[in-house]
């Protein structure tokens, strides 16, 4: 491919005070994000989901290949199918496929193989990575696919929260049932299933702490 046209790009130079104010307000917003497992059935318009996905798709990706597809599932019949298939896998996960250490680590969240949120949330967003691109000329390479899709999923979750909604990063492994139910092309692999909506009125989340700055950052 030819070198792209280059266009000017700049950011306003802000005072240290303004930078701190901006950083603080985004931190204040993001620290209220919680993974939610009990959703309200309240409807959320498609336009909101569309914009959230456009935001996710602004994420950086290897060679700007944007190797992702966001499949939005809002039909009750499809959600029911997905719930049944996910619970089938999770039943096996909780009854032998997950190690004792893993089950012990999950106790604090109170999770089990029942996944009612897959029918309750108004929308599920299934995130697919594109292992490679299928073009009329044949297969084309994608790069850093896992990293790229992880970044886009992070943007997605942040956008959901900023809009005023909740999400759950759900991984009912193996997830290939999603490729089949949603009839995705052979180059796509499901990586996350993200219910989106309002929390149920009686929703609760575990009282958990994030690590301190000293536990997560080193300075040189
Ligand atoms: N996928 C299962 C188990 C599970 C695994 C991890 I790691 C979690 O952080 C939470 C759950 C489930 O969704 O129940």
What's this entry about, in short?
With 220 residues, the chain is α+β, with helices and mostly antiparallel strands.
Topology:
Layout (H helix, E strand, L loop, with lengths): L15 H15 L15 H11 L11 E6 L2 H22 L2 H7 L10 H4 L2 E8 L1 E4 L2 E4 L3 H19 L2 E2 L8 H6 L6 E10 L15 H4 L4
Bound molecules: 3-iodo-tyrosine.
Write up what this structure looks like.
Helix 2 (46-56) packs across helix 6 (145-163). The strands form 2 sheets. The protein has a 4-stranded antiparallel β-sheet. The chain has 220 residues and is of the alpha+beta class. It is built from 8 helices and 6 strands; from the N terminus they run ααβαααβββαβαβα. It starts with 15 loop residues before the first helix and ends with a helix. It has one domain (35-200): 3-Layer(aba) Sandwich (NADH Oxidase). It is globular and about 55 Å long.
